[in-house]
Amino acid sequence: MSTKESKNLYFLRLIHKAYESDNRLSSFEKAFDEIKSKAADPKYQVAYRNFRRFIETVESTLTQNTDLMNSLKYSRFEELMIDILSDNFVGSNEEKQEILDYFHKDPEFDRLQKDISETTTASEVLSIEVIKDGRLLGTQPCAAVFRPLTISNVTPGEHIVQLSNGRRLWSRELGEKHVIWKSAFPEKEFPAAAKTEPTKSLTTFSESFLNGELSLDVFPGIESGIIKISRTKLNKK
Amino acid sequence: MKNISDLSLLSSLKLIEGIVVLSDISSLNELLMNRRLFYCQKPLLLSEFVWQLRERLAKNPGSKILVVDEIVDETYDLTLSKFTNLPIHTNDSTGAEKYSSLLKLKQIDCRNYYRPVLDRIKEWREKNPEASGLEEEQLVGKILQNLVIKHFHFSRMECLRKKRPFSVRYDWKLGDKTITLWYPMEMGPKLFKEWLEERKIESKLDDSELKAQLQGEIDRSLFVERRVDLDINIVDSGHRTDPDNGIDSSAINPNLANVVVAEKANNIENLRPSIQSLGKELLGQLIYRIFDDLANGVFEDNKIANDFGISKATFSRFAGSRWQGRLEQDEDMAIPDLWKNTAKVIATDPEFVEAASEAGVMKSITKVLSIAKDI
Questions:
Q1: Positive/negative CA dihedral, B300, B305, B306, B307
Q2: How far apart are CA A220 and CA B56, in angstroms?
Q3: Are A122 and B169 an interchain contact pair (Cβ–Cβ within 8 Å)?
Q4: What's chain A's Rg over C-alpha atoms?
Q5: Cross-chain Cβ contact A54/B10 below 8 Å
Q6: Which of A85, A86, A169 is most worth mutating to test chain B (most B CB atoms within 10 A of its CB)?
Q7: Contacts made by residues B1-9, CB under 8 angstroms, sequence distance 24+
Q8: Of chain A residues 141-180, which have a CB less than 8 A from chain B?
Q9: Among B264-268, B286-290, B328-332, whose mean pLDDT is lowest?
Q10: Max Cα-Cα span within chain A
Q11: pLDDT of B18-73, one tens digit each?
């Protein structure tokens, strides 16, 4: 059980304990919540008055000591500078300019700017990939103008269509009846036009995916088939 | 809960919704194990991308500031935990309580770090209702990559602050450039300036390298070796000496009490004569005793005063627990010396000030911190 004098200063115990935790910001926030929750408790009135006085002393220390206030401002502005450089800043243009001006002659700013810009601008356009048995058969960037992706020499087996970020879009086991003309259409002659332009053959399988944004067609050939992936609608969800 | 094949078909945005809204561990696993949403010369998983950031940091001249592996590894670990620690919801109350206490220790919840992605995409979708799923997938990766970069650099700052607690900034003018250095607050600007002027400056170094070299020396000489020049009976005060190397382990990671002791001991001549007469050694023991008794809830003004042979009135002015009634007196008397000093030390901690400002208990400082609150 705490002594009365300990109770009068219990907020210092909470602050000290929070300081030593792994996540100090969150621990300080919890400590302040606890202190505020006891403000109206008659048993803690002396303690709360002491706490108010302590905080006033922290405030007056900061307002009277330019070095300390500037240290605090620097730490806060350093975080905001990282926000700006990593495209996470949500303030006004005036605020942004104020921060940039603040770090104008600081070599730390040059270093951070170089470091962050090299990692943020590295993002590449997503690609569509066709994979069979873990082997990449073909890939096509999903640029604004999407050129159809055509994969030839398709033989029976499980095929996967996915984005280069790992999201699977489609997968299916394709059999001989999908990729070999004789199995698909035993009664029909292989079209002459398909000998020079394979996609002029008949399709054995068609399906759209990604909310109808992409479609996949399978064309059988004499010894192997073709997969063609096209974009079916642009700029539509 | 979705099975693996279903999850692999979900958009990255849906996975993030699963993490943030449903606390779904399977969605988190799918995102971490299978989604290469990050790009640095090639598509990368989150852990691979953070590793790349770690490698860059290790090569940076600024990394010479402290023991490289320590800061670099701590930054890497902290960043990863921000994007991987997920609280588990369970119907078993005992389990929930158990996990809750574990979480309290970790105190990091990845949902808070993924949530901005949902906010950003919602905002973008309102402006671009016709945009395609492919565009959305691309944008989710970009937003997440930028958030991870931000939190990697924030983690580095957090780690550095832990290595340099209670520090003050010093702007060193070098031609038209300003080099920002951090020194222990108990040292004071005058002493630090004198220490700085005694250093050998290598003129061939660029600003960034020079800063790294100087800050490295400050860290090694003034922060890592931060200790009080006292021959204190540290066993009695609860502070242990490593028998193998004779180093006071508390001096390596100083807590609030250590820094207050150092500040008081370094400025003993400014204390009231009755306290000054204790000498540095006994003064240090007195302060450690006060902090230890407070931590254990056994603080008693009279008992400590008796044990150290000082009058009740002297102790009351130095570290008393009753401050009421003092407000009307001289401003300087309104709070006992030791607590005034503790307030001064804690004022150097940006996280304390930010939390106090957020909690609404320190309004006059809020203005400094309120600019552009980030997401």
A1: positive
A2: 50
A3: no
A4: 33
A5: no
A6: A86
A7: B1/B26, B2/B26, B2/B27, B4/B30, B5/A168, B8/A166, B8/A167, B8/A168, B8/B34, B9/A167, B9/A168, B9/A169
A8: 142, 163-169
A9: B328-332
A10: 100
A11: 999 999 999 999 999 999 999 988 899 999 999 999 988 887 655 544 445 678 89
Instruction: Indicate the residue of A29, A59, A78 with minimum beta-carbon distance to B355.
Output: A29
Out of B43, B178, B374, closest to residue A105 by CB: B178
- Please tell me the distance from the alpha carbon of residue B313 to that of residue A224, in angstroms, as a whole number: 99
CA distance A189 to A175: 20
Q: Does A37 contact B at CB distance below 8 Å?
A: no
> Can you tell me which residue has the tokens 């001249």?
B61
Selecting from A54, A74, A233 the residue whose C-beta is nearest the C-beta of B343 gives A54
Q: How confident is the model at residue B297 (pLDDT cuts 50, 70, 90)?
A: confident
Which residue among A13, A25, A26 sits closest to B294, beta carbon to beta carbon?
A13
Q: Domain map of chain A by residue range?
A: 4-120, 127-231
Of B366, B328, B354, B352, nearest in space to A63 by CA: B366
> What residues of B are in contact with residue A6 (Cβ under 8 Å)?
293-294, 297-300, 321
User: Average per-residue pLDDT in chain A?
Assistant: 87
Contact A13 B365 (CB under 8 A): no
Q: Tell me how far apart the alpha carbons of residues A67 and A51 are, in angstroms, rounded to a whole number.
A: 24
Q: How many CA atoms lie within 13 A of B320 on its CB side?
A: 18
Task: Name the packing angle between helices A107-120 and B46-59 (round to 10°).
Answer: 150
**Cα(A178)–Cα(A175) distance, rounded to whole angstroms?**
5
Tokens representing B188? 């004071």
Q: Are B71 and B156 in contact (CB under 8 A)?
A: yes
- How much of chain B, in percent, has pLDDT values that exceed 70? 76
Task: Sort out which chain B residues have CB atoms less than 8 A from A106's CB and list them.
Answer: 177-178, 180
Residue A199 and residue A228 in contact, taking contact as beta carbons nearer than 8 Å:
yes
pLDDT class for B16, splitting at 50, 70, 90? Answer: very high
Q: State yes or no: pLDDT of B213 exceeds 60.
A: yes
With residues binned 3-state (H G I as helix, E B as strand, rest as coil), the percentages for chain A, rounded to 5, are: 45, 20, 30
Q: How far is B245 from chain A (nearest CA, A)?
A: 24
Contact residues, chain A, for B290 at CB < 8 Å: none
Q: Contact, B284 vs B232, CB < 8 A?
A: yes
> Nearest CA to CA, how far is B109 from chain A (Å)?
11
Q: Which two three-digit tokens encode residue A34?
A: 């606890």
pLDDT at position B160: 87
Contacts 24+ apart (CB under 8 A), B221-224: B222/B183, B222/B184, B222/B187, B222/B195, B223/B163, B223/B164, B223/B167, B223/B184, B224/B66, B224/B252
User: Which residues in chain A are closer than 8 Å to B11, comparing Cβ atoms?
Assistant: 167
CB contact under 8 A, B351 and A116: no
Task: Taking residues B339-356, report their average pLDDT.
Answer: 90
- This prediction has a pTM of 0.82
Query: Phi and psi at residue B42, in whole multiples of 5°?
Result: -155, 160
Between chains, do A167 and B12 touch, taking CB under 8 Å as contact?
Answer: yes
